[in-house]
Amino acid sequence: MEPFYSQLDRIRYQHVVVANFEYGEVAGTMISSFEGIEENKSNNGERLPLATNLMEQQIESYFQAIRDRDLDRWLDLFSPDGWIEDPIGSRPFRGNRGLRIFFRGFLKVFESVDLQATKTKLDPERGQAQIDWSIRATHKNIPVQFAGTEEFQFNSSGKLKQVRVMQNPCDVAQQLLTVWTKSPC
Questions:
Q1: CA separation (Å) from 164 to 2, 12, 120, 139?
Q2: Both ends of the chain: CA-CA distance in Å?
């Protein structure tokens, strides 16, 4: 006879993962408002001219660090006050500590990641970039695929000041739910 609690633990885990993805676009918005965090989501027209090759190098390093699952290299690309909001509408992860928490969470969810940039739009005069991408990943040996766009804002030294991710976490939730509901409890 198999212990009943292991089944409950697995179902609870599956529910948490699916719910986190399903409601990812609004997660944390209320908490951020309670904390009084003012969202500075643009550079307010400030002109930060950067060399195109520096922006391209930083973006490639960012994606390569994700593919390599290299936390330290990924963190090093951000300014000390840098942050990421993934997806837009969720609670931003701020500073080295917050970014570390975000990336570790990403590493726990996805065991493997094949991330490819599909379209690049650079605005070196404003120190901004927009990159469309697609991901093939695995979660607990379940393959998932999804796509999105990241908006990068660089500071004057070429470090990432902010990253905003436009993607639909429900895409991942639906793929996981489809697999999990086909398997017996």
A1: 45, 30, 15, 23
A2: 14
pTM: 0.77
Which residues sit opposite 94 in a β-bridge? Answer: 83
Size (the chain), residues: 185
Please give the angle made by the CA atoms of 149, 144 and 15, to the nearest 5 degrees.
Answer: 105
pLDDT digits (tens, 9 = 90+) for 51-86: 999 999 999 999 999 999 999 999 999 999 999 999
